[in-house]
């Protein structure tokens, strides 16, 4: 089986089993499945709901006013209990976890996106399972993702995932609401998300429709544009995570383009270039013919001022743009390290974000 990076989003209904509190027996079963995949070399990322439910349970279901501040209070109390539970259950299998609390601002600002991506990659490379949730305690309406379905899609892009699994209390997306229509049929594969499909899914904002499928459809659309396969399935199904990882037909599967990496790049690089760098002939050859990243030693000129994480043009000595990519360093830093070997970066600027100026995975060759 090909080793994959798999993001697993767990809704509150899955974690509570429909009750008022977190169901430890159900969660440990999900952790067991993650452990088996982890043993096989897959990289696992958890996007977890349940902080507010955990907060209510911890405070013995207090009678609070229905305000944003009350939800922030519950999330603040519950997030600690929730991450503690994940830590305890993964420790049964000697797996370490790392917590990441994100807002939309962390994912829309390119420098913060890169910083979060670096942290996520470091955890995955060291066999640590990231556990991600929205930072509800501080998020305002302007910076909230708003729901963990969409957050999981953004996390999957952050992790450059192969699969996004959305686990819910429904088997998948149906032709109608199965709770109301006994003739509703499970849709096993979806190639295109159109208006008719969105009408079936229902209103994502209100949470109505077939099991609150509206936001899951939004997540599938976001992840699909980045070339990530999405599966919606029932969290209560036996071995659901293992079966999906093994490409067994489960739930509703959203098909993706055969060139996901390029789609992921185009999704990231919608912004116009903020500046440019000029490369020597050796670096140009390495990009065009060898599929290499850009090292500082190949840079001979840096133009305009830009921040780490911004998109820049990559030019040859004749000034022709041969590629476009996300810079790992700001323009001032690149000017200082240009023409130098990677091992000199830290000495020259006092820090480093890795050995490359622009990574191949963050580059489109024209």
Automatic annotation (TrEMBL):
Q: In which pathway does it act?
A: Amino-acid biosynthesis; L-proline biosynthesis; L-glutamate 5-semialdehyde from L-glutamate: step 1/2
Give residues annotated as binding substrate.
49, 136, 148
Which Gene Ontology molecular-function terms are recorded? Answer: ATP binding; glutamate 5-kinase activity; RNA binding
Q: In its UniProt record, which GO terms are filed under biological process?
A: L-proline biosynthetic process
Q: Which catalytic reaction applies to this protein? A: L-glutamate + ATP = L-glutamyl 5-phosphate + ADP
InterPro entries with a match to the protein in the record: AceGlu_kinase-like_sf, Asp/Glu/Uridylate_kinase, G5K_ProB, Glu/AcGlu_kinase, Glu_5kinase, Glu_5kinase/COase_Synthase, Glutamate_5-kinase_CS, PUA
Q: What domain of life is recorded for the organism?
A: Bacteria
Per the record, the major location class is: cytoplasm
User: What's a Pfam family this protein contains?
Assistant: AA_kinase
Q: What is the similarity comment for this entry?
A: Belongs to the glutamate 5-kinase family.
| Protein name according to UniProt | Glutamate 5-kinase
């Amino acid at each position: 089986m090909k080793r994959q990076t798999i993001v697993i989003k767990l809704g509150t209904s899955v974690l509570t089993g429909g009750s008022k509190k977190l169901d430890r027996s159900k969660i440990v079963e999900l952790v067991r499945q993650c452990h088996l995949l982890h043993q096989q070399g897959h990289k696992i990322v958890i996007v977890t709901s349940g902080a507010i439910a955990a907060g209510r349970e911890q405070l013995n279901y207090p009678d609070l006013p229905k305000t944003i501040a009350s939800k922030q209070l519950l999330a603040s109390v519950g997030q600690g209990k929730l991450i503690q539970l994940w830590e305890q259950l993964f420790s049964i299998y000697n797996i370490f976890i790392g917590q990441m609390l994100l807002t939309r601002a962390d994912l829309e600002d390119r420098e913060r996106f890169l910083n979060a991506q670096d942290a996520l990659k470091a955890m995955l490379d060291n066999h640590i399972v990231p556990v991600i949730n929205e930072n509800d305690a501080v998020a305002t309406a302007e910076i909230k993702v708003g729901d963990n379905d969409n957050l999981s899609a953004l996390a999957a892009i952050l992790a450059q995932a192969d699969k996004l699994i959305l686990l819910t209390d429904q088997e998948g997306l149906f032709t109608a609401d199965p709770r109301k229509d006994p003739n509703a049929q499970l849709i096993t594969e979806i190639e295109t998300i159109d208006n008719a499909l969105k009408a079936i899914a229902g209103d994502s904002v209100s949470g109505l429709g077939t099991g609150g499928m509206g936001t899951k459809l939004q997540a599938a659309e976001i992840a699909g544009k980045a070339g990530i396969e999405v599966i919606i399935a029932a969290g209560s199904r036996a071995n659901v995570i293992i079966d999906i990882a093994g490409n067994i037909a489960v739930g509703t599967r959203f098909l993706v383009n055969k060139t996901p990496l390029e789609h992921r790049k185009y999704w990231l690089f919608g912004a116009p270039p903020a500046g440019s760098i000029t490369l020597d002939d050796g670096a140009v050859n390495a990009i065009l013919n060898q599929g290499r990243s850009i090292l500082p030693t190949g840079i001979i000129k840096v133009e305009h001022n830009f921040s780490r994480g911004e998109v820049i043009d990559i030019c040859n000595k004749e000034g022709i743009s041969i590629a476009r990519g996300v810079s790992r360093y700001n323009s001032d830093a690149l000017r200082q390290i240009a023409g130098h070997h990677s091992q000199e970066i830290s000495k020259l600027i006092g820090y480093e974000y890795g050995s490359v100026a622009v990574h191949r995975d963050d580059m489109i060759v024209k």
